[in-house]
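ASSEMBLY PREDICTION REQUEST
Request ID: AP-0331
Submitted by: J.K., bench scientist
Number of chains: two
Total residues: 576
Priority: normal
Notes: Please return the full assembly, not individual chains.
Input sequences:
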Amino acid sequence: MTLLVAGAALVGLGVAVALGARARSRTPNDRRIRIEQHVTINRSPEELYRVWRNLEGLPQIMRHLESVSELTEGRSRWTAKAPLGQSVSWEAEITQDLPGQIIAWRSLAGADVKNAGSVSFTALPGARGTDLKVVLAYEPPAGKVGAALAKLFGEEPEMQLREDLRRFKQRMETGEVATTEGQPSGRA
Amino acid sequence: MKALCWYGRGDVRVERVPDPELLNPRDAIVKVTRTAICGSDLHLYDAYIPTMRKGDILGHEFMGEVVEVGSGVDNLAVGDRVVVPFPIACGGCYFCQNDLWSLCDNSNPNARLAEALFGHAPAGIFGYSHLMGGYAGGQAEYVRVPFADVGPFKVPESVSDDQVLFLTDIFPTGYQAAEVAGISGGETVAVWGCGPVGQFAIRSALMLGAERVIAIDRVPERLEMAKQGGAEVINYEEVSSRDALTALTGGRGPDVCIEAVGMEAHGMGAAGVYDRLKQELKVETGRPHALREAILACRKGGVVSVAGVFGGFIDKLPMGAAFNKGLTFKMGQTHVHRYLKPLLARIEEGAIDPSFVITHRLALDDAPAGYKMFRDKHDGCVKVVLQP
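STATUS: Completed
Returned structure:
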């Protein structure tokens, strides 16, 4: 979850978590990026909420996240990997926390990159699991840091978020992440 | 270990590769005692399926002995004799829990590729391209089996390897084609293609109560095997299968039409690939016509059940015929896990001995020759079993 990280990484767009738009939008004079992804997970909203609410466990879900430390109530410090062995960090606060329904957060003043995000959990009809929706909004700063962060996110932030959510779903449904890394082949 | 690796069109070789290792807690390692070449392996051999990489280990029909289990596998022990379903299924997703194992949400590490092509990703499959997960296959001395607490099925000593090997794919595949068509008694069923899957579809249709099965192919020994299985046969090189079916069904058409041919072509991906495939198809033996024929031949309100493998796009499907005749289509990769127990029971009670389909046995070292023989249908080849 480069993106979460990123999202988190990037600075507080105020509360520009406009739910509704689907893909990131970007205009020449507007660096704000907004992305949204859904994944259906065969677990209850309550169970998924509990996992996400344990912020310190999020680096297991988000590939580019190094650590999250919970500070005082509702506040946390996030550290993400950045290119060239660097890292970026910021403080965030939870702005909405409804157990089993939604967690929303935004970066605090002083972050290099303003960002905000939310994860919401909606039971699907007919016992078909939970629609987990993640929305991230962030504003990469101009200059070096922004360039580095842009690189961190890559060209396809939705895709990166999607892959992170896919891994999360796999962990929740199977306890592991499907892989072929390390298997034999006839390639020298 | 030794493994059969793919290097390109018509180029498969037995190579020395590293032994597989446990990569996840729910993995097991199986020492392969029997493996087979599947008709769908020929699509790889003929390079019709994109996302293959040189050096990929092939094989999705295999069985053997468990030699190592991960910490997350509590229902298997070293020494267990198992058959392994060709689709890899996690057991925990919506699809697995609804008996739709080949549609598992979680077993394809390259789900993104499949989603781009299909909208959603089906289960990973052993040895069947990176689109289907990129898993090393079982035409090898050893194989890593993911989600080993869900897939591998212990088989009793009372049944031989040859009798149960095909539970991994072709027996359930032929059976599913008949079962999902709703065969329950008295039907007339036509089966296009008398390869191994067609042979099992014929026998399965009869086991399920079909009154007549009419099998269509052009290879004499395959037609003969179909006859032995209880089918009436049509050699489409000698007569028009359309006319013959009309005559044999009093003009009404078969109640169920099973397509067990598939496209020897999978138009996945770019338009260029698609065009190349179309071109290739013109030199094939009318195989792409099987589905169209099935649709046109099927009786009004009947069922067309597709067991043959399709991967991409097909041209000129007679949708008007399908719609106006009110046909039902059933299709899909086989939910092998669903059929292991009931079909093992059929084998144990003597209702069927799946080893009938084996025509050739080779050492793993001779697998490249086996592929060539199977593809060219030389020497009466219907099914090749390899013994590592």
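REVIEWER COMMENTS: DSSP finds four helices and seven strands in chain A.
SIGN-OFF: pending second reviewer
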